[in-house]
Description:
This protein has four helices and three strands. By secondary structure, the protein is an alpha/beta fold.
Amino acid sequence: LIGADLLKLCRNxxxxxxxxxxxxxSDAITVALRNGNVAAYSVEASGEILRRQINEGNxxxxxIHFAPSNAWNSDESMQTLRNVWVNNILSVxxxxxxxxxxx
Length: 103
């Protein structure tokens, strides 16, 4: 989703990716960090692709933050998750299910 074309438009941006490292092109973020389009990048701790680049001597490694894998786990996100669960259950009981998978 986030590749070289989008990152070229950035000016000293800070990008926080707590969803999935594959959402951001790792080669493109490396170039954007080097060029100054991106000032800092935070990615979930699993970030294996970026870890390899750091181990290979990426000079911009200090601009990359590895967030813990539970970074999404805030009081607010847990409350949102509870609300979704309750709304899903109530919608099924009412005979009008929401968040339904359809092919």
